[in-house]
Write a structure and sequence with these properties.
Strand order of the largest sheet: 7-15-12-8-11-10-9
Number of domains: 2
CATH architecture of the largest domain: 2-Layer Sandwich
Order of helices and strands: HHHHEEHEEEEHHEHHEHEEEEEEE
Structural class: alpha+beta
Number of strands: 15
């Protein structure tokens, strides 16, 4: 408002000067001149605004580049603090680095890996534990979690106009999922810890991803449920489809058992389903063709996508058994019916004392994870005939 008031005063002053000096005939020309001056200044102002906006956009682009944003800086600080902890221990770390470490339960339980390292660890673990990509994964904060599970629903009855109605109630039970501890340790010489060129954090991350991923992947398939997750093959209540030939699939129409398994599930589950088998079983199925000579098992056309069978993805799991008499080489189902509970992510405890006489520091790594089938009706297992 102050800007326009000033312009108004300038215009009025100029008009008075014109009226005093040149008379009324010169007023239109003076107004036109003032308008031209005003437009010229507005154009200049717009150019300045545009230049300021361009500078702001350029600055934003620079900040968004890798290594310049605040998030990246935070990630670097976390990585630096975690690596400092691995190399020197908590007692020799600066106070600002100690603050960036995340404590698990208490100092004696170790320190959690930073979120960025934990995310990379999880990504690598999926290579050995592919069920994580399809199952329902939840994070819990207690020693166990309980879920109500419906055993049966209500029943409706046909009745006459004034006939007494029959009551019915749904039946529920309760299941508990317990996170079990998975642990290992790694011994590293103190000389390696002192060598800054040695990428200790990366090496440990890859090692832990492999060892933890293999163990939990095997448990999600065939775990007993005692001190480890319960696997899909050992869970109860899952229906079975038996192949027509002992030790394998029928010589004629071998895919019949697979088609039966697909249609054994309700449409809602089958349309979200995925097959679970190992690579040897996939090799057998890769030879099957339909009546038009088309292969039933379709290999992916783009990198990173799974193979498909009857239009549904195939989860390749090395822990699934081979085709053999009495074995369950194939499972099909909606994997939201299998639940994985994570209690504690990767936690590392540094022990420089136990092997100090040998110049070795030991790193104890642990995590707590559980798993079980919550909805058996969403799965079907294919069993090879025993005889």
């Amino acid at each position: 408002m102050k800007h326009f008031s000033t312009r108004a005063l300038e215009t009025k002053s100029a008009a008075l000067e014109i009226k005093e000096e040149g008379g009324p005939d010169d007023v239109p020309a003076a107004i036109a001149a003032l308008q031209a001056t005003f437009e010229e200044k507005m154009a200049g102002l717009q150019n300045e605004v545009k230049a300021a906006k361009d500078r702001a956009d350029e600055l934003e682009t620079k900040l968004n580049r890798p290594g310049t944003g605040s998030t990246k800086t935070d990630d670097d600080q976390e990585r630096k603090a975690f690596e400092s902890f691995l190399r020197r221990g908590i007692e020799r770390m600066p106070a600002d680095e100690v603050k960036t470490l995340t404590v698990a339960n208490d100092p004696s339980a170790g320190y959690l890996a930073p979120e960025t390292i934990g995310a990379e660890l999880f990504k690598d673990m999926v290579e050995f534990s592919p069920i994580r990509n399809y199952a329902r994964v939840v994070q819990i904060t207690g020693p166990e979690i309980r879920y109500p599970r419906r055993v049966s629903g209500t029943t409706a009855y046909w009745v006459d106009e004034i006939e007494d109605r029959t009551a019915s109630e749904p039946v529920f039970d309760q299941m508990s999922l317990t996170p079990w501890e998975l642990a290992t340790f790694t011994e590293v010489s103190n000389q390696l810890l002192e060598d800054n060129a040695y990428n200790l954090e990366e090496e440990l991350r890859l090692d832990y991803a492999e060892s933890f991923g293999k163990k939990e992947g095997a448990a999600f398939v065939a775990g007993t449920g005692t001190k480890q997750p319960r696997g899909i093959l050992t869970a109860t209540g899952i229906p079975e489809i038996i192949t027509g030939k002992a030790d394998g699939f029928a010589a004629t129409d071998p895919a019949d058992a697979i088609v039966k398994a697909y249609y054994a599930l309700p449409s809602a589950y089958a349309q979200r389903g995925a097959w679970l088998m190992n690579r040897n079983t996939m090799g057998i199925m890769s030879q099957w063709k339909d009546g038009q000579g088309r292969y039933l098992l379709m290999n992916p056309v783009t990198e990173g996508t799974p193979s498909t069978l009857l239009g549904r993805p195939v989860i390749e799991a090395v822990d699934m058994p081979d085709v053999a008499a009495g074995a369950f080489p194939i499972v099909f189902g909606d994997w939201s019916g299998y639940r994985i509970v994570d209690r504690i992510g990767l936690s590392v405890l540094r022990d420089p004392y136990t092997r100090a006489r040998n110049g070795i520091t030991t790193f104890h790594a642990r995590k707590r994870v559980g798993g079980d089938v919550t909805h058996p009706d969403r799965f079907v297992k294919v069993k090879v005939a025993a005889s």
